[in-house]
Amino acid sequence: MSKVLGSETICPHIALFPSAGMGHLTPFLRLASVLLSNNCKVTLITPKPSVSVAESAHISSFVSAHPEVNHLAFQLPSLQPPNSSTNDPFHIQFDTILRSVHLLHPLLYSLSPPLSAIFSDILVAAGVISVAVDLGLPHYTLVTFSAKYLSLTAYISIMVSDPTKLSCSAEIEIPGLGPVPVGSIPPPYLNPNHLFTSVFMSNARALPGVDGILINTFDWLEPETLSALNSGSVFAKFPPVLPIGPLVPYELKRNEECQYLQWLDVQPKESVVYVSFGSRTAMSKDQMKELRDCLWKSKYRFLWILKSNKVDKDDKEDLDTLLGHSFFEDTKNRGMVVKRWVYQQEILAHPAVGGFVSHCGWNSLSEAARNGIRVLAWPHHGDQRVNAEIVKKVGLGLWESSWGWGIENLVKQEEIQKMIGELMEDEKLRITAKKVGLL
Ligand code: UDP
Ligand code: UDP
């Protein structure tokens, strides 16, 4: 990626600007790592303070492993949310970052060597457009979710004049893509005043103003959607969409032995069900008990990453209080529960892992696909039902749509057990997932 002019080598200098949450930071750090290994200079702009400990810890460990990165901590002003539609700290942070982007201008103007381009998170794209125009820089946005969810969001933002009426139909027909069930649309999208919705919609509406869209997906996973977007059948005018996924994890330095990895080392090949709902999905106490009882009675080995609170620093309850001591006594020879951050990329790459019960966060899915791990989709919110449809359609996993949104319904232990049985025993699924891992 470097240009030789006479005897001088010119390396592109790229500014990367992620929004909030590990689901946004992780793909940016992965992209930064790819750019660095292609001789680019990287300026990483990270909003400060971050919402979770995970974000600040990953930023500092990435920056200390790559001292060549120019790290700019972008101090956020304290802004009042414009309404009280949500108390989700990640949604509030999305909005704060978007409303503060104009403050970036002086930070970027004075960089040396000058920037060659800005790669912004899709959730800040609308604000970065004018900064990039002022600085005369190309501006590409990185989409951290699927091409299908991108199309759905962009379509609603441009074509649906009254989203509150969407609930009157069963499906929404997107040209070039076919119908999307209204039940897969995140419920906040039906309320234009919801902060989550206003952030997603304003950025989607602004997309014609970016030079291109980089997206963490790949052709095998979303062939029709990518070709529909790039052929102009969804929108006549849309920036080029370049699939760059699945983004390859960068090496994470471990400062300690992880008991759960040592435990995986002594489990038979593909015998363990890995259960995790990502970095910011907490399960209700009742649902936790159903899942516990399912794993207790099931014959399968399991590694369960438990979260009882959305934000890691508030996640303080201990495991015995949440699940009861006898569960641990009875399952100690075939299961492990962890209540802290884990190295998911190492878990999914471990030969002992057979299946993944996942909330269907897009990063988790692309990591599963990359490692050839089959998935039981249990979407909880946001883009996750759209992602679950993709998983089912391509044969990477199973999805029982009657479970609804994880945050709303109580799924009983027998139902979970049945689906885990299918996940672990279905040979066709196992083979398809393995094939994806070999692509
Ligand atoms: N992750 C991890 N360890 C954890 C929880 C999450 O490494 O304990 C990583 C996971 O591998 C993924 C990201 O955090 O890369 C979560 O993003 P995803 O899109 O799957 O879900 P979100 O957390 O945004 O809901
Ligand atoms: N971490 C987290 N929440 C916590 C504690 C740690 O998200 O409550 C994350 C953090 O992102 C860090 C990773 O866990 O990168 C590993 O944390 P650890 O405590 O093992 O520290 P490290 O190995 O980075 O020294």
From TrEMBL:
The keyword Ion transport does not apply. Keywords: Glycosyltransferase, Transferase. The keyword Glycoprotein does not apply. It comes from the Eukaryota. SUPFAM superfamilies: UDP-Glycosyltransferase/glycogen phosphorylase. It holds the Pfam family UDPGT. GO terms for molecular function: UDP-glucosyltransferase activity. InterPro entries: UDP-glycosyltransf_plant, UDP_glucos_trans, UDP_glycos_trans_CS. Its EC number is 2.4.1.-. Belongs to the UDP-glycosyltransferase family. This is Glycosyltransferase.
